[in-house]
From TrEMBL:
InterPro entries noted in UniProt: NAD(P)-bd_dom_sf (IPR036291), SDR_fam (IPR002347)
Organism whose genome encodes this protein: Actinomadura verrucosospora
UniProt entry keywords in alphabetical sequence: Oxidoreductase
Gene Ontology MF term list: oxidoreductase activity
Gene3D superfamilies, per the entry: NAD(P)-binding Rossmann-like Domain (3.40.50.720)
Keyword Oxidoreductase: yes
Protein name from the UniProt record: Short-chain dehydrogenase/reductase SDR
Pfam families: adh_short (PF00106)
């Protein structure tokens, strides 16, 4: 039975992925900083016995190691690690407020690196997969956008990691969605106009990547809503 650990799994894409995998018979561990959200996720799942929730900051090295250790203790193995935790600020490096930048950079860039470092031994044992949830913003420049720069960093991290672990039989997939209708937009002034992906549609792509046959490594999946011009 496949075991997956998802950071930032209490809402949005992470929660949708956890529910989808649970519905398909997987065992899932999710991390999040908000205990209340984690409890609500567990309460909304039809099979909470196959779900482990861990309160953890994705940018905290000790917390990430503890989350991996908890998943291994509960389920006995780890087949996939999904770096989904992320945050954004609405401003520009030219005239924005640096107050929120540190948390964003640490969560979006350091967080995935910590998950890789904490989970790699377990993934080598199962010849598992690392999934990094990036963004179309990691391929297309947006004026002054530091969030986009963090996603460019994640795009690079995916290939750097692939080159480091492919000989060990560990796959690496970057999932790069376009606009997704989630609470991500709340601090950015609300959901923009135009077509949007659902969290469930992105979750389908993540689940598809995890389910690739042994020996197959799909490295980059870009998913946009029809009609998104960039």
């Amino acid at each position: 039975m496949t075991v997956t650990l998802i950071t930032g799994g209490s809402s949005g894409i992470g929660a949708a992925t956890a529910r989808l995998l649970l519905d398909r018979g997987h065992r899932v561990a999710v991390t999040g900083r908000d205990r209340g959200r984690l409890d609500r996720l567990a309460g909304s799942c039809a099979n909470p016995g196959e779900l482990l929730t861990v309160t953890a900051d994705a940018a905290d090295p000790a917390a990430m190691q503890a989350a991996v250790d908890a998943a291994l203790e509960r389920f006995g193995r780890l087949d996939a690690a999904v770096a989904n935790a992320g945050t954004a600020t609405p401003d520009s490096v030219v005239d924005g407020d640096p107050e929120g930048w540190r948390d964003m950079v640490l969560t979006n860039v350091l967080g995935p690196a910590l998950l890789i470092r904490s989970s790699i031994d377990a993934l080598r044992a199962t010849r598992g997969r690392i999934v990094l949830v990036g963004s179309v913003a990691g391929f297309i420049h947006t004026p002054g956008n530091l969030y986009g720069a963090t996603k460019w960093a994640l795009t690079g991290l995916a290939e750097n990691t692939r080159r480091a672990v492919t000989a060990d039989g560990v796959g690496v997939t970057l999932i790069a969605p376009g606009r997704v209708e989630t609470a991500f937009w709340d601090p950015l002034g609300g959901i923009p106009e135009g077509r949007m992906l659902t969290a469930g549609q992105v979750a389908e792509s993540i689940a598809w990547a995890i389910a690739r046959p042994s020996g197959v490594d799909v490295n980059t999946v870009t998913i946009r809503p029809l009609g998104q011009p960039v």
